[in-house]
Amino acid sequence: MIEITESVLMKSDDWIKDNLLFFRDAGIQVALDDFGTGYSSLAYLKKFDIDYIKIDQSFVRHLKSGSDDLTLCKAIIVMAHTLGIKVIAEGVETQTQLELLQSIDCDYAQGYLFSKPIPTNEFEQLLLTNLDKPFTEN
Predict the structure, then answer these.
(1) C-alpha–C-alpha distance, residues 35 and 88, integer Å
(2) Is the dihedral of CA 105, 72, 95, 116 positive or negative?
(3) How many other CB atoms are found less than 10 A from the CB of residue 82?
């Protein structure tokens, strides 16, 4: 998967368009990072055949039941799913955030709740020591 930010996508010059199409033709999925923080047109979601939208952590950080952030996350998820796009929430740090996102049908989450960034060699070791365990137990 390749990630591209809204701001880069907004430039929408031929080089960006050609490379995104090249990646698509090569079977590489495209994620639109930091969704909701820029000024992108929703038409870009269709024009560039985006596979994933990554909800910016600024919407997830203060997530709580009944909050405007939860309403915005839900609206993004419903819109994305209607367009056939999967959704990843960024910056998930608490079990409560995860449960709220699951309650509004968010597809995936990433953040410190699961792991802090780690160097490549530590990641490889983590994989090697957990190959025989289901991912959900790690």
Answers:
(1) 10
(2) positive
(3) 8
Structural domains in the chain? 2-137 (3.20.20.450)
Per residue of the chain (138 residues), what is the pLDDT tens digit? Answer: 888 887 777 776 778 878 888 888 899 998 988 787 766 667 777 777 789 999 999 999 999 999 999 999 999 999 999 999 999 999 999 999 999 999 999 999 999 998 888 899 988 888 888 777 655 544
Catalytic residues: 90
- 3-class DSSP state of 51: coil
- Global pTM reads 0.81
Q: Which two tokens stand for residue 18?
A: 């050609």
